[in-house]
Amino acid sequence: MADCENLATCAFFKEYETDEAKKQALQGFVDMYCKGDKQNECVRKKVSKALGGPQNVPVNMKPDGKPILGTSDSNWPAEVKAIANS
Ligand code: SF4
């Protein structure tokens, strides 16, 4: 399967690429979603489509719709949380 079309610009992937501490924890998500067969189930993509673009997706949201370990979703807007939990 081809890589996700958002890979070059996705904030999640950039975070993963540049943060050595998170790299190990996030590698599995990249393999499953960004470079794997779950990319069409990515919640970041759903939020982006529903809310008008990637700028409206919290940087710390993983492809499964949960905050990256050690971060919180307390600052996410209600409409983002609604999509993430749907
Ligand atoms: S997190 Fe989602 S939108 Fe971003 S590159 Fe991975 S699959 Fe694509």
3D structure, described in words:
This protein is mostly helical and 86 residues long. The chain has one domain. It is 45% helix and 0% strand. The protein has four helices and no strands. α1 (11-18) crosses α2 and α3 (43-51) packs across α4. The longest helix is centred in the first third of the chain and has 15 residues, at 20-34. The protein is globular and about 30 Å long. The model has no long low-confidence stretch (mean pLDDT 92). The structure holds iron/sulfur cluster (SF4). Iron/sulfur cluster (SF4) binds next to α1, α2 and α3. Iron/sulfur cluster binds at residues 4, 6-7, 10, 12-13, 33-34, 39, 42, 44-45, 63.
User: What can be said about the biggest beta sheet?
Assistant: none
First-residue to last-residue Cα separation: 26 Å
Strand content: under 5%
How many individual β-strands? Answer: 0
Helix content: 40-55%
Q: How many individual domains?
A: 1
The coarse silhouette is globular
Which compounds are bound in this model? iron/sulfur cluster
Radius of gyration: 12 Å
Mean pLDDT: 92
